[in-house]
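re: ur question from earlier - yeah i can do the single chain one, its not a big deal. heres the input i used so u can compare w yours
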Amino acid sequence: MPRTGRSLPLLPTGLFLLLLGVAWASIETGGFLPRFVALAGLLLLLLFLVQRAAEIRFLLLQVRSRAEPGPTTTLLLAALVLALGAILAGRVLTPVDLTQERLHSLSPASRATLAVVRGTLRLEGFFVDPSGEWELAQRYLELYRRSSPEVRISLRDPDRDPAAAAGAGVTRAGVIAISHGSARTQVFSLDEEAITQGILRVLEGRPRTVGFVQGHGEPDPASGGEGGISAWAAALREANVEAEPVSLLEHTDVPAGLDAILLVHPRHPLYPEEAGALQRYLQRGGRIGLWVEAEDSTGIERFLALYYVRLLPGVIRDAGRVSARLGLGPWAVALVGDPTHAITFGLGTFAVGISARGVEIESPHPMDLTAGPLLRTTGSVDVFADAGAIDGPPQRRGVQTVGAVLEWQAAAGEDWRPVPDAGGLPPVKPIARLLLIGDASLVTNRFLGAGSNRDLAVESVRWLTTQDRFLGMRPRLARNAVLRLDHAGLRATLYAVEFGLPLLLILTGAAIWMNRRDRGAG
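and the output i got, formated as tokens:
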């Protein structure tokens, strides 16, 4: 059998280039260089097989008669196993997400949404290549592709492929176009929450709709300025919730088609007919959200008393260190949420408001329902009759509850039938929900971006519109992982690398040599 030493460098070189190209392509799929490296390695392996075809055939025939294959056969078998392993790992196996923030896997809500998809769901990303958004979009789209066999993804640069962008109705970079059958939508925010909400839009066919009560000095959903709520309405649209103004005086009841109705900062009390309409709406399974301030008069105090909830008089003054650091004046209040409720679970920081008032809820609640506080002050505060009474003694002092939630099974009536939600999701049951927050400034344009106000405002509406599966779905950010080694750790690493690994190789080689010597002697 001829010597193979001169041709052996082709085998390790080709194998190294092939594995390097495959690993490189799995990390950076946008360029051609990784594929060129893998192709070069494959060509070297083919050249080796052609040059040593006779020797390889001879060695394979000797396998039956020899207990231990030669070095060439061993390298060929190792190359075959590694190649098959790379193919299976790339096409079959799912990566294991070991990050604390679960950065490389979708949330349960997203997986539940993808589980009901029937038919091809297309996610087409249009971003500038190269850019950080391109890499982030690539990661997100790949997560969705791995999570469902119905998902088809693509990623293009709209400047390099204008025809594809025009076909998807995309006019600029930074967009993910989502389509399912004839339904189409576009997502402009690059995070899991926005993408999953976009998928819901094409599956459900319609967004949730909330009505903002008008006619008593409340801000309109489209109103700008510091006291407006247009930023909140825009955030709701990103969460697949449409906002529209509603006048209860023009209807004998709450208009049909609303998933919830909101009353925000009324300057004048509601008329008895309007309060009656809200009461009837809640009794049959409606959802109502109230955001009021210290000077507001709602006209529904009697209606709230039926559920043992009361808006307390006075305005809260928080002189604690947290509020003082805000720099918003003496009436700024820092609020923390109940960590056990779905709305406030996982809020990253405290909410920030001004001119807040207390909310009182009976505890334990005498009715057969789920009720409890939602927001409270971060510490002990003073409550004054108004801002001008600050020189006198406070009416109350201590930790104040500023938000409360109630939920119960409503009497739906004999004609109610469970209708499955669009997209095959569970039926929407007649569950009445009431949310009351004694600070309307939290949702205004001035304060929406402060603290966790935006998350609190959006999550509250999600809870009211029974989108519970999306509560707590927020962007997950990677934390800096710092590896700290002291002198002992550095010394141990030095010994392991400089002495341990070479010693292991020497001992392994000695064991193999002694084994072969014993066989030769036998």
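The two ends are 24 Å apart (CA to CA). not sure if urs matches, ping me
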